[in-house]
Amino acid sequence: MSTGNIRGLIQALPQFREVLGRLSVHISVSSELKNALNARSLTDLGELEQNLIYGDANSQDLIKFLSGERVAGVSAVCLQLLSACKSAAGKQRHEHDVNSQHRFKVLVW
C-alpha cells in the first residue's frame, strides 16, 4: 500500500464516519418503526385488508384475526376500516356476481 493510498483513505475517513452516522440513524429509525408495526399488528392488518379487497380472504379469515391475540394492539379506527373493507369487498363481489348472471342470461336468450 502506497503512501498516496493511505493519504486518500485518511482524507476519506471523515466522510466515511458521516455516512456511518447516517446509516446508524437510519437503522435505529427503521428498527423503531418495525417494532411499532409489530406491536400494533399493522403488518397483519394490512395484509388482511388487502386480501379481503382482492377476494383472497373471507369472513372466516376476518373472524380468525379478530378472535386472535394479534388484535390486541390494533386501534378501534383500524378495526372499523377493516370492517369497511370487508363490507365494500363483499358488496363489490355481489354486484359482480349479479352482473355476471345478467350477462349469462343475455347470452342464453
Helix content: over 70%
Average pLDDT rating: 80
| Principal-axis shape | rod-shaped
Q: How much of the sequence is in beta strands?
A: under 5%
Runs in which pLDDT lies below 50 for 5 or more consecutive residues are 102-109
Main beta sheet, described? none
Q: How far apart are the termini?
A: 87 Å
Q: What radius of gyration results from the CA coordinates?
A: 26 Å
β-strand number: 0
Give the ordered list of helices and strands.
Answer: HHHH
Number of helices in the DSSP assignment: 4
Structural class, by secondary structure, is mainly alpha
Question: Would you summarize the structure shown here?
Answer:
The protein is mostly helical and 109 residues long. The chain is built from 4 helices and no strands.
Q: What's the layout of helices and strands?
A:
Layout: H1 3-39, H2 42-53, H3 59-67, H4 76-108
What does this structure look like?
The chain is an all-alpha fold and 109 residues long. The protein is built from four helices and no strands.
